[in-house]
Write a structure and sequence with these properties.
There is one protein chain. By secondary structure, the chain is of the alpha/beta class. The chain is built from 9 helices and 13 strands. Helix 1 links the parallel strand 1 and strand 2. Helix 2 packs antiparallel against helix 4. It is globular. About 35% of the residues are buried.
Length: about 240
């Protein structure tokens, strides 16, 4: 795709540092849209292009509610991963980070006062894991109807909180506008609820075959599963007619 003169970029719910190794491996010439669209950064220079952090007072309120309801959470600043205590829920990203060269790892820190951290290091996303069956009900009772935050999900057992208006689609639209790229010139691929905005924005929104039903309903095309090269097959078909 790149050899054909078409840009390819990563748009992810991950923290920037977790997506950066993939951009480096592919040697992409595009920035990374990270934290569900809350921040967009050049991966080589680590320069921020644009972003929307959460207000520190709002973060403090959310942390207080989560703590009182005994809900596990971690949160992302521009470059750092914070949690009160590392649990199994963060083991995969921690393991991946430890395997990176030392100068490319991003800070993963246990902290005792999340509100104090948020006042010093702007927060772009709060990720809440619902470990017990009753946790989802607790979360939705406090946050489902709020208009001062954006709430989405990337797994069946998690919720992700950002500033109002934050969405992958909004970030993609902003970047495309900066580059003079029209929606009809964009193909987006996704698999979960946090991809719905960019799937709807793109001229061709593609859900992989093992995506959640909500995303499939929003998509223009259903590809093969990601385990069976759904993205590659679709690019070959749409761009190269193969």
């Amino acid at each position: 795709v790149r050899d054909a003169g078409i840009d390819f970029m990563l748009c992810t719910g991950r923290i920037f540092g977790s997506a950066r190794p993939y951009a480096k491996f592919l040697d992409l010439n595009t920035p990374i849209i990270a934290s569900n669209g809350a921040i967009t950064m050049e991966w080589k220079s680590r320069r921020e292009l644009f972003g929307t952090p959460m207000e520190p007072e709002l973060c403090a309120e959310i942390f207080d509610i989560l703590d009182k309801n005994d809900l596990y959470y971690h949160f992302y600043s521009r470059e750092s991963f914070y949690t009160r205590k590392f649990l199994h829920e963060g083991s995969a990203i921690r393991s991946m980070n430890e395997k990176l060269p030392e100068d490319e790892r991003f800070p993963m820190l246990e902290i005792s006062d999340p509100a104090r951290v948020a006042a010093k290091d702007p927060v772009y996303k709060i990720s809440v894991r619902c470990i017990r069956p009753e946790d989802s009900e607790k979360f939705t009772s406090h946050f489902a109807d709020r208009s001062d935050i954006s709430v989405t999900s990337s797994f069946s057992d998690n919720y992700e909180i950002s500033a109002p208006g934050v969405d992958k689609g909004a970030a993609l639209a902003r970047y495309a506008g900066m580059r003079g790229i029209r929606p009809e010139e964009i193909i987006s691929f996704g698999d979960n609820k946090n991809d719905i905005g960019m799937i709807r924005y793109a001229g061709l929104g593609v859900a992989v075959g093992n995506a959640v039903e909500e995303l499939k309903n929003a998509a223009d095309y259903i590809a093969d599963t990601n385990e069976n090269s759904g993205v590659g097959k679709t690019l070959a078909k749409v761009i190269f007619g193969e």
